[in-house]
Amino acid sequence: MEPPPLGDFGVIITFCQSHWLEEFSRGFFSLAEQHAVELVGGDTTRGPLNLSITIMGEVPEGKALRRDGACVDDDIWVSGALGKAALALAHRQGRIVLPRDELSDCERTCINPSESRIGAGAAQRCQ
């Protein structure tokens, strides 16, 4: 049996609304539980907002999907919708105006996704 993935979490907070922090924590711990990640360390300090999450795990020998193993004519696989996160960010920065339903879709699927895409990567690793 493979050991569980381990997580280390560092946070630097200047000011944060408690509602945001509660929602973030709920989502973070839900994903950690879903993927059997044990939180083994972390730190909280003051400063400009900065979140740093490091997840360490193991892959069976010879099965890792690595960028340096790419070859000419390999397929490129993408999970999710390209550009939606950039659209939501541009809207938040006032560079564009998105209709409410399109902004909601971008935020729901890219900014605040309800599920991770770990399975997509695992399915592509070397067989």
Descriptive keywords:
globular; 4 helices; 127 residues; alpha+beta; three-stranded mixed beta sheet
Helix vs. strand class = alpha+beta
Strand residues, percent: 15-25%
Taking all residues together, what is the mean pLDDT?
Answer: 79
Choose one word for the global shape.
globular
Rg on CA atoms, Å = 18 Å
* Uncertain residue segments: none
Number of helices: 4
Biggest β-sheet description: 3 strands, mixed
Order the strands across the largest sheet as they lie in space: 2-1-3
Query: What share of the residues lie within helices?
Result: 25-40%
End-to-end C-alpha gap: 18 Å
Helix-strand topology string:
EHEEHHH
For the secondary structure, the number of strands is: 3
Structure in words:
By secondary structure, the protein is of the alpha+beta class. Helix content is 35%, strand content 19%. The chain has helices at 18-34, 84-92, 100-111, 118-124; strands at residues 6-13, 38-46, 50-56. A three-stranded mixed β-sheet has the order 2-1-3, with no helix packed on it. The longest helix is centred in the first third of the chain and has 17 residues, at 18-34. The radius of gyration is 18 Å and the shape is globular. The two termini are 18 Å apart.
